[in-house]
Design brief:
Distance between the termini: 35 Å
Structural class: alpha/beta
Order of helices and strands: HHHEHEHEEHEHEEHEHHE
Number of domains: 1
CATH topology: Rossmann fold
Strand order of the largest sheet: 3-2-1-4-5-9-8
Largest sheet: 7 strands, mixed
Length: about 260
C-alpha cells in the first residue's frame, strides 16, 4: 500500500486536489468540519492519511496544532515541502499503528479524509478506531470521510459506459491496480461504521459528500462542462446534512464523539 501511494504522490495534487471536483468536494468537508468538529479555541488535532497536506495546512492556518500522518513517504515529502506554519508537522505513520505518536488522552480531534480508511479491512478499521479512542480526550471527536458501498452517480456512469464495473462497490471489496501493484479497496456504509465503532464512540453528524458533486474519476468530462459542475455544487450545498442520502454519495462525512463509558 505504501508503494502505491508513493507512486501517485507527485501527481496527486494535479489529478485531484487542485481539480474543480477535488476543490468543491473538499470545500464541503471543510464546511462540515467547521459546523460540528472545530472550535474557535486552538485544538490539538491528529490527522491520518493526510496525503499532500491540504487539510492539515488549512487547519493549521486557523491556529490549530496539527500532527498530520500518512503511510506514504512520498505523500509526506510533498506535504512537508508546503509547510511554513508553526504548530504543523508531518510524519510517516500507518493509521493502524498510532501508538507512540501522541500521548493517550491528549488529542481533541482525530481526522481522516477522502477514503484513506477504505484501504483497510474491517479488522484494520476497528483497530484504528480503538487507537483513535485511546489518544482522544474524553468527549473528543473523530471525523471520518469514507467511500460507501454504493454511489448512484458512479453506478449510472458505469451502467452507460462500462457495465462490468457497476457493482464494484456493492460487493464491499474491490481489487484495484496501480502501475501493476494490486491492492484491495473496502467500502463501508454508515451503519457498518457505526457497528465497528460500537462501545468506543457515539455517532453524531452524518452528511453526504458528493451526492450531486461527481466522483473524481469523472473529472475529464466535467472539466469540459464547468457550468454543469457549478449547478451540481449548488444542489450539493442544499443537501448538506441530509443524512439519509449519505449512503449513496461518492463519500460521506461522519462525526463521532468518544464514549465516556
Amino acid at each position: 500500500m505504501q508503494t502505491v501511494f508513493d507512486q501517485v504522490s507527485p501527481l496527486y495534487d494535479e489529478e485531484f486536489t487542485h481539480t474543480p471536483i477535488g476543490r468543491k468536494q473538499r470545500d464541503i468537508v471543510w464546511s462540515c468540519l467547521q459546523k460540528v468538529a472545530l472550535t474557535p479555541e486552538p485544538m490539538n488535532i491528529l490527522e491520518v492519511n493526510c496525503g499532500t497536506g491540504e487539510d492539515a495546512l488549512w487547519l493549521a492556518k486557523m491556529g490549530h496544532s496539527v500532527l498530520a500522518t500518512d503511510i506514504s513517504s512520498g505523500m509526506v515529502e510533498v506535504a512537508s515541502s508546503k509547510n511554513k506554519i508553526p504548530g504543523l508537522s508531518f510524519r510517516q505513520a500507518d493509521l493502524q499503528n498510532l501508538d507512540g505518536l501522541v500521548d493517550a488522552g491528549s488529542v481533541d480531534l482525530v481526522y481522516s479524509n477522502f477514503g484513506g480508511l477504505n484501504c483497510v479491512s474491517p479488522t484494520g478499521f476497528r483497530k484504528f478506531l480503538e487507537q483513535a479512542a485511546n489518544v482522544l480526550k474524553p468527549g473528543g471527536s473523530l471525523v471520518v470521510v469514507v467511500m460507501p458501498d454504493f454511489c448512484w452517480m458512479e453506478s449510472l456512469y458505469y451502467a452507460i459506459k462500462e457495465p462490468r464495473m457497476v457493482f464494484r462497490r456493492i460487493i464491499g471489496r474491490s481489487p484495484a491496480v496501480n502501475d501493476s501493484i494490486p491492492y484491495d479497496v473496502f467500502y463501508y456504509n454508515p451503519e457498518r461504521i457505526k457497528s465497528l465503532a460500537s462501545g468506543l464512540f457515539e455517532p453524531g453528524f452524518l452528511s453526504p459528500v458528493g451526492f450531486f458533486l461527481p466522483p473524481s474519476n469523472l473529472r475529464v468530462f466535467f472539466s469540459k462542462h464547468p457550468g454543469i459542475l457549478d449547478r451540481l455544487e449548488r444542489l450539493e450545498k442544499c443537501f448538506s446534512g441530509f443524512s439519509h442520502v449519505a449512503f449513496a454519495s461518492d463519500h460521506f462525512f461522519f462525526q463521532f464523539t468518544k464514549s465516556k463509558r
